[in-house]
Every structure is written in structure tokens, then in C-alpha cells.
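Review form for a predicted model. The reviewer records the input and the model, then writes brief findings.
Reviewer: anonymous (R2)
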Amino acid sequence: NISTNSFSRSCLNYENGQVKNIHYGDIHTKLQSHVDASVEIIPYINEEENYLRYLETSFCKEKDLIFADASEDLNDIGKCIEIINTNNEKILSGLHTIHLRNYTDYFYIGFGGYLFKTNRIVKQIQRESQGAKVLGISSRKILNLEINIPSIQEQEKIASFFTIIDEKLKLLKEKKEKLELYKKGVMQQIFSQKLRFKDEKGNEFPEWEEKKLGDICEISKGKQLNVENMVENGLFPALNGGINYSGYTNSWNTEKETITISEGGNSCGFVSFINENFWCGGHCYALKEIKVDVKKKFLFQYLKYNELSIMRMRVGSGLPNIQKKGLNEFPIQIPHLKEQQKIANFLSALDSKINLVSTQIEKTELWKKGLLQQMFV
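Model under review:
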């Protein structure tokens, strides 16, 4: 058990320094299970902080395991990372972490990062954690975990196998990111009208017209209906805030393709395109009765591109919300119907490619998770 520090976020920076620091929040949200310091972005400790009091033995080495010892989420308590490359940098294990080092060379590099992701060990950690709002686990309880360890030769084969899967996941995620960046750039060109589509004869379409959102559709907001009544009446789940299902509704939506805008909360202003039957919930606007000269999928892409502008319409000091009056006045640039169709088709095709890669990522992650559990039963 190696000593750790308690430097808060205010003691760290991403620009410069001599010593880097692994914060427990980064274990929860940013760092991969196998940390390569030449790739991962790890913050520096500010020069004015007294980090020189830590001995050389406190700096991370390859094969070290670092656990997050605190979390508000049961699924994240005791989350573990393995250092596989320090990149010859000085790295300390920081606030709310447990830093373990194996002095017997009993682990093959890379194996520990997979071992501590298995259900058998995760469930042990969850049982040993304590706390109400914030869960915690001690280094003593981590050290007392029961683990089954194969031979070094088998560990090497296991680590190598899962490394190949992780590399595939990395490539898929990079592909998705590139597609998303490409779509973002194309949308900027299209909706600034720097990139224009032409008709079948190669002629320019007419100039775009400015209208208000309320002029081209009806903006409808749901209201509360308790979950018990929904169950009694055999109702479908409601869509609350445009993102999550909940028990709030006021009318059945029979259209499978509906644009929604979140009305309140943290997702306030979020724009979605819903493909399934659903109830529009109490914190969610649905765009209905869209005019025949406006393509639904074009309108969605336009609003999604302008999502930040919609979010800036938030009002209220506590829980923010967007008012229907503001949405009715929101300006929309509308091109010719046939140009709308070309724009919608082009952007929807990009969405399909992005969704396909997202599905591949999800399936690969599920496959990896299943293999981990089978291999470490």
C-alpha cells in the first residue's frame, strides 16, 4: 500500500509542472482501465504545492494498481486502473485513491486492469463499501479481497487477448469521433449557406426564407400523470426532458417521428428525434402539426445544429427552463422544399453511419464484458 496525497482540483493544472497527479474523479470519468501516460491526459500538480515531501517510492510504476476509494455511485466504488506506461514521468496517486504495488512480480503487465473489472471482484468491493450518500472503501478491505490468479503464462495470454479487443474499441471510437467532427463541419457549412445543394439540372435553389418556429409548427408541452395511473391504463413510458423515460404525460403521440425539446433541468434545450411511439412528458416539448412545406428531418437537423442557441434561452435562477413563448419566436432559416430534402438525406446518412459505429462499440463492449466474466468465473 503506497502513500497517496490529498491535492484537490484547485491544486492541479493541465499546462505545466514537474509531477503529475491521478485524481479519483479522473478514474471515474476519464482514464482508461490501462493507463499509458504517453497517451492519457493527466494533470500536473501546481508548482507552489509541497509535493517534494513524497518519496521516490510514492511515484507510480508499471503494473501499479490505483483504486478510487470514494463514489456516490455503487457501480463506481473501488473502480480500478492499472499503470502500464509511466512514460518516464513522475506521477502520484491522489485524492480519494488507494495505490497498491505488487512486489512479487506475480501479475503480468496489463492483467490486473482486467482482473479488477470482473463481477466476482466488483461485487466483493460493493459489499465491503460503506456510507450513505457517499460510499467509501478502505485499503485494508481492498487488500483482503479474494482473487483467483492463473499462471504468468496464462495471464499473458489473457492480457494479450483483451488488449486486441481494446485496440478494436479504440479504433471504433476514433472512427465515431471523426465522423462526428466531419458532420459538425459540414453542418456549419450548410446552415451558414456557404455550401448549397443544386437541383437535378444543376441550377441554384431559391434563397432561404426566415420564419419563426411557432409559424411552422405547434409546440406542445406535456403535464404530469402519476406512474400508477399509467400502469393501470397500460400506457407506454413517457419521455421526460427529451431524454429519459418517466411517468409524465398528457396525450398519446401516434407519430413515430417526433422532434422534442427538453423544457427544464440539466438537459434544458436538448433536441431529440424520437422514432418510437411515446408520451411527451411534463418537462418536454413536442413539435406537432409541422407545415407541409417544411421537412421534419430538416427541421430536426437545423434545431440540433442550433442547440446551443436554444439552450441560451434558459430562464430561472434555480432549476432552469425554456419558455414556450421563446421557442415560438425562435428564428428558422427555411430553404426550398427540395433543398431541405437533399440536406436532410445527406445529414441523415451521416447519422446512420455514426449510429452504426455506436452500435458496433456497444456490441464489442458487451462481448468484452461477457468474456471477462466467463474467463474469471
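Findings: Residues 229-254 have pLDDT under 50 and may be disordered.
Further findings: The first strand starts at residue 12 and ends at 13.
Recommendation: see findings above.
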